[in-house]
Amino acid sequence: MHGEGAPRRRSFWGWGWEDRSPDALALEKLARRVSGALGGELRAAPAPSLEAARVPPSKLEVPAALAAFCTADREARIRHTYGRSWRDVYRGFCGDFSPAPDLVAMPRGEEDVAQVLAWAEGARVAVVPYGGGTSVVSGVEPAVGDGYRGSLSLDLSRLDRVLEVDTVSRAARIGAGATGPGLEAQLVPYGLTLRHYPQSFEFSTLGGWIATRAGGHFATLYTHIDDLVESVRMVTPRGIWDSRRLPASGAGPSPDRLALGSEGTLGVITEAWVRLQARPTWRGQASVRFGSFEAAVAALRDIAQAGLYPANCRVLDPQEAFLHRVADDGSAVLLLAFESADGPRDAWLGRALAIAAGHGGVSAGGAGGGGDQESWRVAFFEGPYLLNGLVQLGVVADTFETACTWDRFGALHEGVTARMLEALQAVCGGGALSCRITHAYPDGLAPYYTFIGLGRGAHALSQWEQLKQTASDALLDFGGTITHHHAVGRLHRPWYDRQRPEPFARALSGAKRALDPEWILNPGVLVDPPTGDTGPGVDE
Ligand SMILES: Cc1cc2nc3c(=O)[nH]c(=O)nc-3n(C[C@H](O)[C@H](O)[C@H](O)COP(=O)(O)OP(=O)(O)OC[C@H]3O[C@@H](n4cnc5c(N)ncnc54)[C@H](O)[C@@H]3O)c2cc1C
Question: What's the rounded Cα separation, in Å, for the pair 274 and 256?
Answer without folding.
Answer: 12
